[in-house]
Specification:
28% helix; 9 strands; Aminopeptidase; three-stranded antiparallel β-sheet; alpha+beta; single chain
């Protein structure tokens, strides 16, 4: 799926795409990423997607792992943006937004029964303060709602807004 991300240095929109990583090495902790996405992508029932720029299709800008829990509930198991897209020196913006919107799109495609269009995910950080900060970001930027202690959901309505903003 074609998407657009934002290059911060010159404020330019960059053509990118979200694809399955056929032939590319999925990032892991040894590559400077926070999660071992390579390991998690091999789990049964997981679908892994990467975001790459069209100009540099071998450089992964972000990664998403999606699954259906209990074969009906859309769940964003892992999402991570590349280390070079984090912090004050990040190169690109909108990578996470594109991946979350894509996961919302998958929730409409694969979700069954009353789960259709709902996207669940867990926020687990080493300390509670970081966890609360990240939950606040998901609420403010992506319209997520806190559901349980560490679980958040994006409603079908909020998901449609994200899809319109980041995927269209």
């Amino acid at each position: 799926m074609k998407v657009k991300i934002f290059r911060i240095s010159d404020r330019q929109t960059i053509e990118a795409q979200i694809i399955q990583p056929s032939g590319l090495s999925i990032p892991s902790i040894t590559d400077g990423w926070r999660f071992n996405l390579k390991k998690h992508s091999k789990r049964a029932g997981f679908q892994t997607y990467i975001l790459v720029k069209e100009a540099t299709p071998k450089i992964i800008e972000g990664c998403l792992t999606f699954q259906l829990r209990e074969t009906v509930e859309p769940y964003m198991a892992y999402i991570e943006i590349a280390p070079h897209n984090k912090g004050k020196t990040k190169i690109h913006d909108h990578v996470a937004g594109c991946l979350i919107a894509f996961a919302c799109r998958l929730s409409f495609i694969y979700g069954l029964e009353h789960f259709k269009g709902w996207l669940a995910f867990d926020v687990m950080e080493e300390n509670k303060e970081d966890e609360l900060k990240l939950m606040a970001v998901y609420c403010e930027k992506y319209g997520a709602l806190k559901w349980r202690d560490k679980t958040m959901v994006i409603s079908p309505e909020a998901g449609e807004q994200l899809i319109t903003k980041f995927l269209n």
